[in-house]
Design a protein that fits this description.
Radius of gyration: 14 Å
Distance between the termini: 37 Å
CATH topology: Arc Repressor Mutant, subunit A
Number of helices: 6
CATH superfamily: Winged helix-like DNA-binding domain superfamily/Winged helix DNA-binding domain
CATH class: Mainly Alpha
DNA sequence: ATGGTGACGTCGG
DNA sequence: GCCGACGCCACCA
């Protein structure tokens, strides 16, 4: 008995799969993932999927931020500072919840995964 | 069923 | 470039 519908399960699974593919030291945004999944406007659902990813340790949710490179979801980590800590451990500089040089660290699945 | 909320993003002013 | 409004969809009271 699953608490989520089949459609959501598929969406969640895809999100997890993409997030797992994010290389260390790189980050992506909810919008990019949603776009890669074909539902650009469903970026919020990506965030919701990350919520469920809490159970799966294989999903580096800390590498997913908003399009601004801001750690908007850090508040959902335990403790909240864990997100920044993990990012800095991978060589990413974070100041005031803002990823430095974010644009250069962005990992766009649409581009990276289409290179075969 | 209805309304409010949210780890977002785009658009118009 | 900042701010407000809307869209999108799942969840919760």
């Amino acid at each position: 008995m699953i608490s989520i519908n089949d459609k959501n399960k598929d969406f969640f699974q895809k999100v997890f799969e993409v997030v797992k593919l994010i290389p260390e030291g790189r980050v992506t945004s909810y919008g990019l993932i949603a776009n890669y999944l074909g539902s650009k406007k469903s970026s919020r659902m990506v965030g919701w999927a990350m919520n469920a990813s809490h159970k799966l340790l294989d999903v580096p949710a800390h590498r997913v931020v908003n399009r601004n490179g801001l750690l908007t979801g850090k508040n959902h980590f335990q403790p909240p500072s864990k997100m920044q800590e993990l990012l800095e451990k991978e060589g990413i500089i974070v100041i005031e919840d803002q990823i430095q040089n974010f644009k250069d660290l962005v990992w766009d699945p649409m581009v990276e995964l289409s290179l075969d």
